[in-house]
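Supplementary Methods, section 5.1.

A reviewer requested that the exact input to the structure prediction be made available. We therefore reproduce it here, unchanged from the version used in the analyses.
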Amino acid sequence: MASRPILRRQFVQSGLAFVGYCALRTSGQAAPQSETDAPATHNWMLVGEQTAFLSHLPMFDHLNESGSEYVTPHRYQVILQASFKKCNADVTETYFADRESHPTTKMFTVSPTGVFVLPDLAANQSITSFDGTVFRGHLERGGKAIAKLDNVTVTLDRLVHFHKFDPTAKAPDVLEYLVFGRSKELFLAHSIVKPPDFDQILSIELTGSADLPDKVLSSAVRIRIPDRKNSSSDRIREDEKVTGELSTGAKITIRTLREFYFEEGELQIPATFDPTAEEIKAGFSS
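The structure derived from this sequence is encoded token-by-token as follows.
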């Protein structure tokens, strides 16, 4: 029997999402202490045809009374490299084959079968796997569980990026993205900072002499797009060539291939689960 996903909208609307908060610390890949967050179900976007990467579906939800913390267990942008096992056999290739056989399906998603504290993925690596189901399509919007990938063990092979949302942070004036991937299979994830914001994942290729070896990509690489405002309407689209700046000031030329995910309504305060005009225009309304 296929697993039924737990929907974040039900979790948020029930008012049971998260009731505790306190000042936390974060820096780069360092995670806050886990006892400050309640266990929750954390759903993931899944990309990759050669290596599987998970991107947490985040939210801001609302602020506490003092305005010092976002009151939701989903207040983190997290990217992981992962693999899948079933009955102790590696079934990651099953996911790759299913994606290849459904070339028009952009979104694949993963829903855990249980709850856990998200910062535990980074704090002392106390969580290295969880059980879950892979869905073809968005699991919260009619996606279908893949029979051979139902109730698999999701092994967390590498923490690529971990960032807790800080209400005091200043949103960048220009677009900022995180480059992640392995070998020649590379992706961009929009850097999420504060509401209103947007989540986006695109596949890319580097052009010219630019190169980001796997050693550099062990953690996501931040780039700025200096000629683009940091807004969903000005975001990078499919089949564009853009010039980005690394933190060193070095230029990198990128050609975008495919937009796998775009979401902005869930990253507003208050969040909306109804499609926005920009989501409808981009084809991500269902």
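The first helix runs from residue 8 to 13. These observations are discussed further in the main text.
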